[in-house]
Specification:
This protein is of the alpha+beta class and about 280 residues long. The protein has helices at about 1-25, 40-50, 70-80, 90-110, 110-120, 130-145, 150-155; strands at about 160-165, 170, 175-180, 185-190, 195-215, 220-225, 225-235, 240-260, 270-275, 275-280. The radius of gyration is 22 Å and the shape is globular.
Length: about 280
């Protein structure tokens, strides 16, 4: 009887701990890779917005391209996902920017219908949709459910993405992990000690380093193929979990090596890697 009571107590303690943990953390969905149906949704969104035309322009609003992105939004999103607010809306850049934005939206909204509604209205509300908005969402989702394999293949993002945990990235020095809901996969790898390095060998025409910026962030030296090409300053007045902090492009595909070296900036030394992305 004493043994049974002990077991019951242990079970009750475990259950109570689990309930407390759930209450503290709340429901959360994480994605180690792309959300389900991303390529299918990108095809559907582009079809609904422009018929898939990268050069479509709305004469009234000024929205441009396959996904009909407003000029003001393009500058902000290009800055975040390409690291250049003045980047041209080329077909490749449109795919990179729109796919990154949609991926981030799904992470917060957890529904393709809600992502479609946001794309039209900029609102995350779940009720009170207008007739026009509902019809738009239904059209996007109609394309989504009726997309063929060839349609989906044609909408695939031109980027190959490597998380901070990828075996393709080699770390030297002291690097640790940190979590935040705004990071891709909810985690980054960071270092604060001068000389800590992350090395990444790849084959492609473009490489992008995504990471957080903010008041506690410092500087990092970036080397391409052994040559110092830039010292990146990650300090900003406010925190942004995910931003394209460095990008480099070539006209033809080739093998290259990217090295990120922590400077160890006094008072704000943090340098973090969320993802590295490569364009073919």
């Amino acid at each position: 009887m004493r043994v049974l009571s002990a077991r019951l107590r242990a079970v009750l303690v475990a259950l109570l701990a689990a309930l407390i943990l759930i209450g503290i953390s709340g429901p959360a969905t994480t994605f180690a890779s792309d959300p389900p149906g991303l390529s299918r949704f990108m095809y559907a969104l582009g079809r609904a917005e422009s018929g898939g035309n990268y050069y479509a322009r709305n004469a009234t609003s000024g929205a441009y391209g396959k996904y009909q992105i407003m000029p003001s939004s393009w500058r902000a999103w290009a800055d975040r996902y390409l690291g250049d607010p003045n980047a041209k809306p080329t077909p490749a850049n449109q795919e990179i920017v729109a796919t990154a934005k949609v991926r981030a939206l799904y992470k917060g909204l957890l529904s393709w219908r809600r992502v479609a509604y946001w794309w039209l209205t900029g609102s995350s509300r779940t009720t009170g949709w207008s007739y026009y908005a509902t019809r738009y969402v239904n059209r996007v989702m109609g394309y989504y459910y009726n997309a063929s394999a060839a349609d989906i293949a044609g909408a695939t993002s031109p980027l190959r993405r490597y998380s901070e945990k990828s075996p393709s990235i080699t770390y030297s020095g002291s690097w640790r992990s940190a979590s935040h809901r705004g990071y891709a996969g909810d985690a980054v790898r960071y270092a604060t000690t001068a000389g800590a390095r992350a090395t990444f060998a790849f084959n492609g025409t473009r490489v992008i380093w995504y990471g957080p910026v903010g008041p506690t962030r410092g500087q990092a030296r970036v080397f391409i193929d052994g040559a110092l090409v830039k010292t990146v300053d990650l300090q900003r007045s406010s925190f942004t979990a995910r931003k394209a902090v460095f990008t480099r492009s070539w006209t033809t595909p080739g093998k290259h090596t990217l090295v990120i070296e922590v400077v160890g900036t006094a008072g704000h030394p943090y340098v973090a890697i969320d993802e590295l992305a490569v364009a073919n």
